[in-house]
Amino acid sequence: MPSPFRTLFVGVGHIARAVHMPAFRQLGDDFEVVGAVDVEPAAAKAFAEEFDLPHHSTDLEAALAATRPDLVVIASPPFAHRRQTVTALRAGAWVWCEKPPALSLAEYDAMTGAEGPGGPYAPIVFQQRFGSGAEHARDLIASGEFGPPLVAHCQTTWYRDDGYYSAPWRGRWETEGGGPTLNLGIHQTDLLLELLGPWVEVRAMAGRLARPIATEDVSTALVRFASGALATVVNSALSPREVSHLRIDLRDVTIELDHVYGYANADWRYTPARGVDASRIPVPRDDVPSSHLAQLRSLLADLRAGRRPRASGADGRRSLEFVTALYKAALTGRSVRAGEIVPGDPFYAALHGGVPGWAS
């Protein structure tokens, strides 16, 4: 597939304007943004004029036919992801879809079902995996040099006021999919799973404590991993001092990360156990911050090679499966095992699982 890769934006809100477009502009020799699609005609037109794009539309299928993109960036609200992703894949374009990937496992499986055996593919925006700090921590854990992971804590405690939920699609299962467990904490959760590998069991609680919404505004969970490691996961939209915190205790080293929306190497800390020489702990060779740009560079290499990118297919599904299991555990009051949520399970089709008092 020759570059520059023709790219179509779908959804032109803040994330497209402030985050995606700067990343694509930095790789301007490799990507050509050729158009914008939005349900609001004025928004699509304004975006196209601001970034000097030749095409704008409210009709995705018409835009696909007119621009013939190689890549479609989906930056619309969650309820539109399945339809837009399937439409773009069937038109032969790769898709880079913002989180959360879908409203349910059923929707995600429909999205990946539209991929071809050799592409096009539909990776999800999980940019926290792609910084050099995460790559370094993953390699250090996998090496086993400092022992296995034993205890972990994953925390996404952010603050979203009532005004944030004034958008008509926010805070509703049928349009946003879930609360902070799905829409805020999924990035840090994805990073936890990237570092610790397969999980086997989750127990959880969720609450609607302060926001006038149908979904949860806080959740907590206990997780057992296949390695035997135990972890806690906390997600909140109610926390004035915002932090994204990750801590993993290996036998000989504690790994910690503190940031909010993105990190550099300096945000990671390695603390040796008593008697362990700190000079044994390697340091990253490069300092690549976590960002959409870092993931886009990886996606670019995959486009050129025609290979399945990270955070797509089963790799992209694992965080949504974990989030779904957390909701099931919280809303039913029982532990949930990995792999048990399959077609026919009410939580496969909706994250609230039809539970009275939670389902809309």
From TrEMBL:
The organism is Wenjunlia vitaminophila
GFO/IDH/MocA-like oxidoreductase domain sequence ranges: 136-244
Protein name stated in the entry: Oxidoreductase
Gfo/Idh/MocA-like oxidoreductase N-terminal domain location: 5-112
Mind listing the GO molecular function terms for this protein?
Answer: nucleotide binding
> PANTHER family under this entry?
D-GLUCOSIDE 3-DEHYDROGENASE, UDP-N-ACETYL-2-AMINO-2-DEOXY-D-GLUCURONATE OXIDASE
Q: Which InterPro entries match?
A: Gfo/Idh/MocA-like_OxRdtase_N, Gfo/Idh/MocA_Oxidoreductase, GFO_IDH_MocA-like_dom, NAD(P)-bd_dom_sf
Record Gene3D superfamilies: Dihydrodipicolinate Reductase, domain 2 (3.30.360.10), NAD(P)-binding Rossmann-like Domain (3.40.50.720)
